[in-house]
TrEMBL record:
Organism in which the protein naturally occurs: Pseudoalteromonas distincta
Keyword list, A-Z: DNA integration, DNA recombination
GO cellular component annotations of the record: cytoplasm
Full protein name: Site-specific integrase
Main location: cytoplasm
Length: 403
């Protein structure tokens, strides 16, 4: 039987305590039985699991998204190591890691579920396992390049941490990745996913028009303005354990320029510049909420509010707002005869708005300014994604070639 080794981030510290003091059986009976059974063939299984919890606790403190990503990758790796290789994860050699990559590309169907499943839930004070949980999702095609890349990243970070903790003597992941037949070297030309001019015009314009009949859509309009006009990620607008975006994070300097303080990736703070156009939509949104036109330094109102309930919105809730506006725009595009644009919009995600704003502004803004507002640690990243200077120059120089 396949058993989920790790619960939620909130439950992790309890799992650590139960494993340490020997009470796992009373709190996680299925997991305790599984570890006991695995221990017959892999004697180091309990020590392996203890180290996994330690690793996830350290890296999970950065963000819940980081925790979930590493948990999912390492949990399936551990299960493969114990059940198929029948070894501790610290006894695996290069050829074992290669065998795991082969398994990742084409996992056993019994290891895959047809839908996302919860792991554990409370039942009379006991965390009960969901028997339908599986470490993989059933897919028609083989593992994508993104999936493989995420797997190699997680394993590499894990073994680097193990080296520092003197838990292992070697990290075979880099050499396996370098020689993997499944990874494709990316092309120089990587165009980000963006909305076309007409798609953005409909997404923003239709939402703005509908605000006349449904004022609550002002929240959608402001969210769209933040994601496209300020190049924000959805996570940067949402409530997180270590950060709650509020109106006082808008601030004005002595010269009258407005900024928004954001907690970005890696818990890095940055100040994003506001355009005159964005300030007008900020005023509009605040007036709809019954607030003064411009923010004050002491305001604790959430940046994107809930209509029912207190506090700001989660990533999932904000994504729903964006999808609602996408759906309205898609229908309007179809009604107006723009079938191709409507179909393409059906594949768009909220993150496309960040790419759309940055790609558009890259034509007029200095690269350094754009990079800082995006929160990129290196200007080269901005250039590679949105400018691609060398590629454009190469294309121009090749236009006059003769056959």
């Amino acid at each position: 039987m396949l058993v989920a080794l790790v619960d939620t981030l909130k439950q992790l510290r309890y799992q650590i305590a139960h494993l340490d003091d020997g009470t796992l059986n009373s709190e996680y009976p299925e997991l305790a039985s599984f570890i006991q059974e695995i221990g017959l063939t892999v004697t180091e299984s309990k020590a392996d699991l203890t180290f996994l919890y330690q690793f996830l606790y350290v890296y999970g403190r950065k963000s819940e998204a980081t925790y979930s990503r590493f948990r999912n990758e390492l949990e399936r790796f551990y299960l493969w190591s114990w059940l198929i290789a029948e070894k501790s994860v610290f006894d695996l050699k290069r050829e074992d890691i290669e065998a795991y990559v082969d398994f990742m590309v084409e996992p056993d169907k019994e290891w895959a579920a047809t839908s996302v499943q919860w792991r554990y839930k409370d039942e009379q004070g006991i965390r009960r396992l969901n028997q339908n949980w599986r470490p993989f999702m059933l897919k028609e095609s083989t593992a994508s390049q993104q999936t493989l890349s995420a797997m190699f990243t997680a394993l590499n970070v894990f073994y680097k941490f193990a080296l520092l903790e003197e838990k292992t003597f070697a990290n075979f992941v880099p050499v396996v990745k370098k020689n993997s037949p499944y990874l494709v070297v990316q092309s120089q030309i990587q165009i980000p996913d963006t909305l076309s001019d007409i798609q953005w015009e409909y997404v923003f314009g239709v939402t703005r028009d509908l605000c006349e009949h449904n004022p609550d859509l002002e929240r959608n309009l402001f969210t769209l303005a933040c994601l496209k006009g300020l190049y924000l990620r959805i996570s940067e607008l949402s409530e997180r354990p270590q950060w709650s975006p509020v109106m006082s994070h808008f601030w004005q300097d002595n010269d009258g320029f407005w900024f928004l303080r954001i907690m970005g990736k890696g818990n890095k703070l940055r100040d994003v510049t506001l355009s005159d156009d964005f300030v007008e939509y900020l005023k509009r949104y605040r007036l709809y909420r019954g607030l003064p036109a411009l923010p004050r330094v002491d305001e604790s109102e959430p940046l994107v509010h809930k209509i029912r309930g207190q506090g700001g919105m989660t990533v999932r809730q904000i994504r729903r707002l964006v999808q609602q506006s996408f759906d309205y725009a898609q229908q309007s595009l179809l009604d107006d005869g723009f079938k191709d644009d409507a179909e393409q919009l059906g594949a768009a995600t909220a993150h496309w708005l960040r790419h759309t704003g940055a790609t558009h502004d890259a034509q007029t803004r200095p690269l350094k300014h754009l990079s800082e507002d995006l929160g990129h640690s290196k200007i080269a990243t901005t250039d590679q994604i949105y400018i691609q200077t060398n590629i454009k120059e190469r294309a121009k120089s090749g236009l006059k070639r003769k056959i």
